[in-house]
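Quick one: structure for this chain?
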Amino acid sequence: MTAVLAQRVATPALLARAGALLRKLMWRAVFTVTGGIRVTGTPPSGPAVLVANHGSHADTAALLAALPASRVPVAAAAADYWFAVRWRRVLVHALAAALPVPRGKCGGYAALRSAAAPVLERGRLVVVFAEGTRTEDGQLGQFRTGALRLAADCGVPVIPVALVGTREFLPKHGRLTPQPVEVRFGTPIAAGTVEADDAGAARVRAEVAGLRDAGPAKPRESRVWAWAARRADSRWLFFASFVWGVAEALSWPVIAEMYLVMWVACRAHRVLPAAVTLLAGSVTGVVLHAMLSRHGVSLPLPMTTPRMDTAAAADLSQGASGMWHQALDGIPVKVYAEQAGRQHTDLLGLALWTALARGVRILAVAAVLSVLARLLAPLLQRLYGCYLLVVAGSFAVLVTTVEQHWS
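Got it. Here's what it folds into:
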């Protein structure tokens, strides 16, 4: 019997934690895509009352993204607004874990304590926006004493929290504008060390104001992006792109354009200049490969097939102009270079046609990439590691498809 009762109690607790985790992951993903979220200070590890400034409907979402899901945080919300209409009630419960608190004549501190005290007793977190409503002009309003009284009655600390960037992200009566958001946790104020009166509320307000006014929200920056950006800005960029172009024309199994897509997309203004040296390296590599092949030197040609050799030989049988086919048929340029050497194709003509055919493709890819990199720069700055994984995976699928086609 005891085991059955324990299971009945544990199941809602597990469901609550699972819901909190899903909300945290969801809001983290939303803020990551729309501008990034940064958390400074130390989030609470036990029950506490969090007192935060209130400038946006995005405030609760930012806190849920920042707070530990294991503490199953809830936010006090006006029952007469958020819970008066069914669709609003379902929405705020599912997405914001809102705790209904009546306002006005039916509300007051007694209503807040009745709703929030059982939550704190279960070791969870309660968020209270002590201003009572969202700010219209960005100024911090007067803090009410309810949060302090609640913390004192329940014997838990008060934690000042500043939400920075949320008002600009989603202003009152405005629309969403993607930008960085920051959640700043202050030093916990232990129960009994601050009076639950107007003076105590003013002290907490000053703490929140100090945290908020420490500066604007800073955008998150991927360490992978920072690493790649430093190298894209260095003078070695063009040497590396030239070497990549040569290597691909000799034996390297990764196409020339992937150098731009993977390592230069972090710096849009460097894409086109890097494409020029990449093209120069590709032409040089093709001529060098043809010269070696002409003298009987065979280089490794990984991820190629005999059908590719046959097709390249047929394209080049009428001369170097056959390089035009390489730009569209998916056959690696090293295969054409090998066949050009075997057929003793004129090297000057080979260089010119390679520059023309390869140049059209490489520079077209660079132009498109340059535009996309500018448009997606904020997203790439935060998610460059994920971007590289997607690019590498897509390239692997493409190469496998082409190889199977020519098998």
